[in-house]
Amino acid sequence: MKDLGGLMKQAQAMQQKLAEAQDRLKALQIEGTSGGGMVKVTLSGAGELKGVVLDETLLTPGEGEVISDLLVAAHADAKRKLDAQQAELMREAAGPLAGMNIPGLKF
Fold it and tell me: Least buried of 20, 22, 35, 65, by fewest C-beta within 10 Å?
């Protein structure tokens, strides 16, 4: 029974760490860029689009398709960075259990 008690304490500690990691994720602001910085988008930790900044040189007639492509690329950049940050926070929170394939937990 002593091992079960230790396991329960580890599970509770991991649950607390996961809750803290989720709080840190909510506070994240991740920026993605494209076009050499001509387009910047900001995503929240939940993946919500929070901001878009366009270089004014893009705001000329006929640049609509370029702007669209750059927005998609900047969003993809921000999403990739966000996914990496989320995975890192979850690995940190899981500690020694990070290498285990536990249903319902994504690391």
Answer: 65
